[in-house]
Amino acid sequence: MEDWALIRRLVADGVPRRQVARQLGIGRSTVDRALASDRPPKYEREAGPTSFTPFEARVRAILAEHPEMPATVLAERAGWHGSITWFRDNVRGLRPDYRRPDPADRLTWAAGDAAQCDLWFPPRKIPLEDGSAALLPVLVIVAAHSRFITGRMLPTRKTQDLLLGSWELIQQLGRVPRRLIWDNEAGIGRGGRLAAGVNAFTGTLATKIVQLRPHDPESKGIVERRNGYFETSFMPGRAFTGPADFNAQFSDWLVRANAREVRTIKGRPVDLVEHDRSRMLPLPPVPLHLGWAERVRLGRDYYVRLDTSDYSVEPAAIGRMVDVSADLDRVRVRLDGRLMADHARAWARGVTVTDDLHRRSARSLRERFREPRHDDAEDLTRDLADYDRAFGLTAGGEVA
């Protein structure tokens, strides 16, 4: 390759071809070929038959019908008994000829039209109240037009928590996007069917859930790129004492993230979000009934279960039907509207949360239950003549 470049440079400088051949110690025909070629010479082995060649036609026929068939299955169908690695290498070269094209359009997002929603799992376990640590989901909603980011860590990815988190983030936006774009998240819905409670949520907001088809990452690329941005710009060098600390740090960082210029829109989200909001829908005029809610009978152990954890209740409600409700932060239990328990919600799984007042009340009720009962009647002795009269006996014992 060096001779090829030198030959062309010398000839371009006016050196005769015969002199170039003599100076470099090569033949005149070599100089002529170098000048006739528009690219450097390279060694290429002539293609010849290999052990894969007899199977190539059969493999191509199978790929024409099933372009995504795994190489191991292809090897079995084609009757291959050699090295699977060598077979994979050859199939890898053939597969692009048969893979069906899946073009991706360049999408444009009108102001107020859509927000992209996703769950991001930070690649670091968060310490919990029982001493354990867990990977917890972070709900992220990005306004598609302005690229304005909102996010919050959630206790679970269940429907109740996803709707509570969505409502909190929509309130941060101050308006309701006309469409909420989701992938097939089980807590929202799958296969075109929404989970229980999601229809009521979207109906109250007058918005629409758009569920993407599988293998369609481009339609949710804005929020997906933000998830990657969090891992490279937010996570490095940070430590967290718990979910509340994570949410506090994340909220502070999002203020700066929304103030940076986004190259694709040539602007800052914080400057564009007002125009985006102006095209969104207003917040609903009626309150939303979201969160965990159930009605149970309080047992003798005076605890109720929410998700996987147990919470104590005032023991005076034992045997009564109580209403259990919870949001992202608190768990409350009511009896006929009276508050019987109010706990911070546990993020750890399978923990027992006890209020000392409930424990002391249970001890007092237990002691009162064990006290002997006293009858107020003065004389508990039965007159034996009552039995004589009952059986028709005289005073001497004879039948009357």
Describe the structure.
The chain is elongated, with a radius of gyration of 39 Å. By secondary structure, it is of the alpha+beta class. It starts with a helix and ends in a 9-residue tail after the last helix. A 5-stranded mixed beta sheet has the order 5-4-1-6-9, with helices on both faces. A 4-stranded antiparallel beta sheet has the order 10-13-14-15, with no helix packed on it. It has 13 helices and 16 strands.
**Count of individual helical segments:** 13
Structural class of the helices, strands and pairings?
alpha+beta
Helix content: 25-40%
Roughly what fraction of the amino acids lie in strands? Answer: 15-25%
Helix and strand succession? HHHHHHEEEEEHEEEHEHHHEEEEEEEHH
Subunit arrangement of the protein: single chain
Strand line-up of the largest beta sheet:
5-4-1-6-9
Characterize the overall form: elongated
- Can you count the beta strands? 16
Calculate Rg over CA atoms.
Answer: 39 Å
First and last CA, distance: 141 Å
Low-pLDDT segments, ≥5 res = none
Q: What is the average per-residue confidence, as pLDDT, rounded to a whole number?
A: 89
Largest sheet: 5 strands, mixed
